[in-house]
Structures are given as C-alpha cells and as structure tokens.
Amino acid sequence: MAGTVGIIGGMGPLATVDLMRKVIEYTPARRDQEHVHLIVDQYPQIPDRTEAILGVGPDPGPYLEESARRLQRAGADMIAIACNTAHYFIDRIEGAVTVPVVHMPGETSRHVAEAGIARVGILATDGTLHTKLYQRLLQREGVHVLIPDERSQERVMEGILAVKRGDLETGGRLFREEAEALVSGGAQAVIAGCTEVPIVLQSTDGLQVVNPTEILARTIVERVCVR
C-alpha cells in the first residue's frame, strides 16, 4: 500500500488514538505490510483552539503550522487533523506545506447530505460553533442545522473537558442527554463534532450519531488505497 499519512494530534491525545485505531480497523489489510503508513505528531502542547477563537488564549496557528511541516519533513504526503475546531485554521496549515490536507468537517458535511439527512444537530466546542464551521458547510449542502441552547452548550463543554481528563462516564452521560435533546427538537441525526464526543457516544435505537472521526478515517483509507 503506497502513501504516508501524517496526523496532527494531541487535541486531545485520546481522540488522536481513536483516529489511529479507526484507520487500522477500516484498512482492508491481511498482514502488517498492507496497513497505512502513519506518522503521528502527538502534540498536546498546541494551545487551546476554542480559547484562541474566543480571544482569551494564545494563537495555536504557529504550532499547527509547525506540526504540519514536521510531518511533511518526516515523509507524509497527506495530512489529517485529529480535531474539528483546528480546521478553523486550515488555511494556515495548508499554507505551511505542499501536500494535501484532508478537511474533516467538509467530508462530514458531504456525508450528511449524501445520507439524505435534512435536519442535523451538532455537539461541538464553543469555538467550532462560534466560527460556524459546520453550520456554513451544512447549509451549503441544503441541510438544516440545530445547535444546543446556551445551558445545553455549557453541558456539552463540560462533557468535552470530562473526556479530556479521563472521566468517560460523565462525558458520555452529558453527550447522550444533549444529543437526545437535539433529536427531541427535530434533528434526524447528531454530528459528534468534537473528536472527544464519539469516544463515548455511539448510535443507538432512536439516536443516529454521525462520527467525523470515522468519516476521516475512512477517507484516509480510501485515498491511500486508490494510489
């Protein structure tokens, strides 16, 4: 299998491992040598993306650019970002390298439209919602977007921070409650729009979860396999 994929990771570390695991699971390999060559920059020192977007934290752009350049120097000929919010800075990341960068929110939005989902909810960071990263892409695809109200969004952020500190039970409970609230409000499905969310929230009867990490992993495998 040709092609080397670099992953800008550490946002957070567990979410990066989740992406790596999914790439392995979705690769049609019969032996070690048929798996995707991954180079991972597990770089949790990248400043918080949401804090930067909201104007209360340092700019992560130089760190993201540095990570992308490091991956290309190491041999990556395609780059993926294991964080939804970081895609707000994708123009800067793409400008730092000469290899393609996979756009997880873009791939996810196309998937939602192709699946015939007309009304979708989003569980994501304050930064992702503030920039309308998903809203713009989905509306361009003709999909109506539902987002949590202010109190519900506070609970989503509580869940994200819980998963980051290793409290998966609390994160899973908060995400499920808020996802069900979006479905009650008319959403046909809910996008797990922060890479911490799908670690603990999966589809069940009555709740269809769209997993961007899964979509990114499948996109990576498809692009490498057609080389």
UniProtKB/TrEMBL annotation:
Keyword S-adenosyl-L-methionine carried by entry: no
MF-aspect GO terms: amino-acid racemase activity
Keyword terms, alphabetized: Isomerase
Highest taxon in the source lineage: Bacteria
Similarity field: Belongs to the aspartate/glutamate racemases family.
Annotated protein name in UniProt: Aspartate racemase
UniProt source species: Paenibacillus flagellatus
Lineage: Bacteria, Bacillati, Bacillota, Bacilli, Bacillales
